[in-house]
Amino acid sequence: MHHNNQFVKKTKKGQIRKVVREHYLRDDIWSGTPLDEECEASAHKLSASASHYLVIDTNIALHQLDFLEHPAITDVVVCSVVLEEVRHKNSAAYQRLRALCASDAKRFYVFANEHHRETFIKSEAGESPNDRNDRAIRVATKWYADRLAGRMEVILLTNDSGSRRLAEEEGVRAIGAASYVRLLRPDATELLDMVAAGTVVEEDPEEEDGGAPVRSAKRKRIYEEHKTFSEVQAGIREGRFHQGALRVNRYNPYEGYVGSDSVGQDILLAGRSHMNRAMDGDIVAVELLPESEWRGPSSKLPGQGKATGGGSDAAEEEGNEEEDVGAGAEPEVFQVGPPDDPSVLAQRAGEEAKQPTGRVVGIISRNWRSRGYCGSLKPPSAHARPLHGASNVLFLPVERRYPAIRIQTRQADSLMDKRLVVAIDSWPSDSTHPLGHYVRTLGTIGDKDTETEVVLIENDINTSPFTPAVHECVPTLPWRVTEDHLAQPGRTDLRHLPVCSVDPPGCKDIDDALHVRPLPNGNYELGVHIADVTNFLRPGSAMDVEAAARATTTYLVQRRIDMLPKPLTEDICSLRGGEERLTFSVLWEVNDNAEIQSTKFTKGVIKSRAALQYAEAQSRIDDPRLQDEITLSLRTMNKLAKILRRRRAERGALQLASPEVKFTIDTETHDPLDVGMYQVQEANQMVEEMMLLANVSVAEAIAHHFPSCSLLRRHPVPAPRQFEPILQAAAAVGLTLDVSTSKSLAESLDAAVRPEDPYFNKLVRILSTRCMTQALYFCSGDHAPHEFLHYGLASPIYTHFTSPIRRYADVMVHRLLAAVLQLESLPETARDREGLRAGADNLNKRHRNAQLAGRASVELHTLIFFKDRTVHADARVTKVKANGLIVFVPKYGIEGPVYLTPRADGNSNSGPSSSSNNKAVAESAFVLDEKKQTVVSRDGSVRYRVFDPCAVRIHVEEGYGHRRQLVLELISREQLQEAEQMVA
């Protein structure tokens, strides 16, 4: 039977449209339960022995997913109208709901109510689509209840009190989520904690079905109400409001920045009141304050209480930040590697100058994590009453950029020493904190596995096992090269070449190998051989879809989260020594001056002669007694690499630096035994040059053949303001840096030396690196050719080709290059401009997340290393503040604050003097000179300038809310020497 359903819909532009939906009604739509005699056995999914069946409405599906995902919730009917409505409203929620429906264990059955003759309903006059869908769900619930009468109770689960009332009038039992748990599932104690809070405004007061505590209508409004979407859009059009993403200062969560093209620079948000319930990552509308109220970021290290213009971290968690308008929170006490956002550092440099300052007037797009935030419960004060029953408690996220979240739980006592995941549900204007709900427990605070899980969740790293469908795409082991492989079109037999790989210690996913050999004409054949992953990873397969979503392999200190299954990454595609493997190879003919005479791309088969570590390759290069073919090849390659490196530098390529850290790990406990800066050798640079050469050659080839749909990688030229931190620091010590071009900057960095201080140049390069923008993947059709530039490499065009085992970007480029060689057709994904743009965005996001997870893993293991030891070390001042310093410890790659005045907790680490001297210094005031980058005590006894050497004591403290922190304290050079003598 055919039927048209009509209703009107208002578009985003305010236009009214008539929507007509065609429906083909059938009688053979199954109910999914064996209790229905007419339902075919193949459609049975619901259990005949369940205590009841649940039918959920759209709001439950959208807002109670954590609740629905709990193992106790089974035998659920999901009407097709619900599935479709969720798909249109929230793609992330839709994917989670689809996963529940696909799970055999959960027994969620999709009922096609819109196509069943007995459950399809027509829209009534004046009825909104939402009201019509709610009625359709009630009709479907009644159909189930009538069909299974006497054999199974059917319950409509809805938090909408109006829908519950109508259902009861229609003879259907309806109940809210919280009441359902209390009345029917008292056995599942966690479930009530997982009911999302504050998502519905129509709750019955006595039921609290939203899971939120009962709120008084007379509560004081703490924050300004947000403007409506139409008001925000009008304000942006008229230039009154400015749109951008909020970045909350990692050092001080009471300061945020919104990048605005309309203003031309970042807008400062000073204090939670001006952030107005916006959180890091939200897209917000900002109104500028009068220029008389503009200010600069705080000139002090946070954590100094009200003296810095705001409350301490502890004060905030007590709910006192209604008065907060400025800085004042525990600092991010240490950092390994560059900070999250170079532009935030750039803003810190101009603290003396005022900048545009504003307040949030509306939220355009929320960036709340659907999977929740990691953290722990706020410890009760010493005089607090014991927690019993349902308690309203504060949850403290591990990441200080996020505010405390108020949740209701019945497990508070047992959860105090645990890491939890909590999701945010709402943030009313009368609530100091956002409201949320408990999701799950990760483990005991401080446990290494638990804290590693926190790192992965916080950075949205997918650790789910690969599905059977993905594993089915992997060839069975043992795998070997066959004659069929050699006979593939475009496949060249390269097994005779002296190929070897050079990688870090312990590398199992070897995706690149190298060779060089002399040619009869006096030139060299230089080859880079990359694992031919796309031979096994077919477009559109389950493995390809999964790899595209993951986008990259994530490397932690002791763990690797693969983009592809291990049999592929560690065996079939890994270019292991002595094994025949398939490759995609780039072969150049170069002369003795490393000038390219010709370039050839080919699919190949190689047999690597050796899988070397960097140290092994370096020792071969350096040992004149070794004259074997592989060693001679390495020496020649190293000679050519030095020429290539010098030529890149002449073009303006930057030789930057970052504080990379490596750990020595105990093989039994897997705890770090030692930590230190990673030492780069010539062998590392040799491999780097070969990979860069291959990436540039491939970029030129694909962009030439496919100018509008190639995947490339660009490094935008940094805005002049981003160089302000290093320019200011350099000027303070009499150093001039020319940042007008990458070449002039490279020359300036080469000249930035102090004969008496060999580490000075590296520190300048590290600080310069932090001024850079992020390199990004992009579609060539989205930018003009002059915007393809990779600033850091001084290359007009660049891409990623050399790591397809660990990066999906390289997989995409391999397919493009195969199309260039006419070995494969151009992938359909490359023909879809919007799809390619979305793919590039995902690559950038996942690449960034993997970077942050790697750094967080280093931070975690650094904490573990220093947990039971106190260490003394040399340090360098990288930033001066009115009450302290930011220092960098070269030996350990650690950067963090040291205080020259007492901290908010009463402790003082105020300098390298005796205790009496320390007290005097702590009590004296300090004067900050931004221009000279110095901080001096008023009596002149203590003076520090940027780049100055100093010495620190390093140890771990248990911070507020179970936040372990690495603490740096200034000590004298004499104390450092004494400590070193004791160790010796």
From TrEMBL:
Annotated compartments: Nucleus
SMART domains: PINc, RNB
Keyword annotations of the record: Exonuclease, Exosome, Hydrolase, Nuclease, Nucleus, RNA-binding, rRNA processing
Pfam families xref list: OB_Dis3, PIN_4, RNB, Rrp44_CSD1, Rrp44_S1
UniProt domain PIN: residue ranges: 52-165
Transmembrane stretches, start-end: none
Region annotation Disordered: where it falls in the sequence: 294-326
Domain of life: Eukaryota
PROSITE patterns in alphabetical order: RIBONUCLEASE_II
Domain RNB: 491-823
Compositional bias annotation for Acidic residues: 314-325
Gene3D superfamilies attached to this UniProt entry: 2.40.50.690, 2.40.50.700, 5'-nuclease, Nucleic acid-binding proteins
Main location: nucleus
Family: Belongs to the RNR ribonuclease family.
Protein name from the UniProt record: Uncharacterized protein
Organism this protein belongs to: Dunaliella salina (Green alga)
Source species taxonomy: Eukaryota, Viridiplantae, Chlorophyta, core chlorophytes, Chlorophyceae
